[in-house]
Amino acid sequence: MVSESEVSDRRLLRGARSRRLVTRRAADIASAEGLDGLSFGRLAEDLGLSKAGIQTLFRTKEQLQLATVAAAGEVFVEAVVRPSGDVAEGAARLRELIRRWLDYATEPVFPGGCFWGANLPEFDSRPGPVRDALARQHRDWTALIAREIGAAVEAGEVADLDPDLVAFQIVAVLEAANIALRLGDPSGIDKARRVADGLLGDDARPSGGQRTRKSR
């Protein structure tokens, strides 16, 4: 005889599987059409699930959007951030992060390209939980780039750059490459690589390979 706890566990597992299935599909849709393009009915039709069942999982459209943002973040971490952790920190890891980001946009991992490229412009002037979640992910990504630049500076691998400023530049260039791709111009990828190389390559290193300090 199956106990009540076992029945409950099975229901939780089914619910978790359904939630992952729905949010992954939702992230694909939102990458191309934005988070406002999501609806319980469309997801139910796409996935062969009941609309009522999806509504039970997420309750409101805003909760669905927030869960989709979180799911997109997990996909991005698995595609770009986590694999780069196997590379030594500093310049090598930074270049690996950039390479994997460009692959993430080129392949693409999401059918609409960069998930944040599609959704940040939609929500940047709309205060609320969804905007906050998107902004937090964007800050975390920029901070990760800045951290690796800082490590490269400390190791003397690059010139004495301002990590926050260069991280801002790199993220902006990657976003521009994503826009170019979406407009049918793949040359943006090579341009992004060249800009990153110009900032981080041998030409950015002081003569003699020694790091110089900026006056504070």
TrEMBL record:
Tetracyclin repressor-like C-terminal domain ranges (all copies): 90-194
Signal peptide positions on this chain: none
UniProt KW keywords: Transcription, Transcription regulation
UniProt-listed InterPro entries: Homeodomain-like_sf, Tet_transcr_reg_TetR-rel_C_sf, TetR_C
Name used for this protein in its record: TetR family transcriptional regulator
Keyword Transcription part of the UniProt annotation: yes
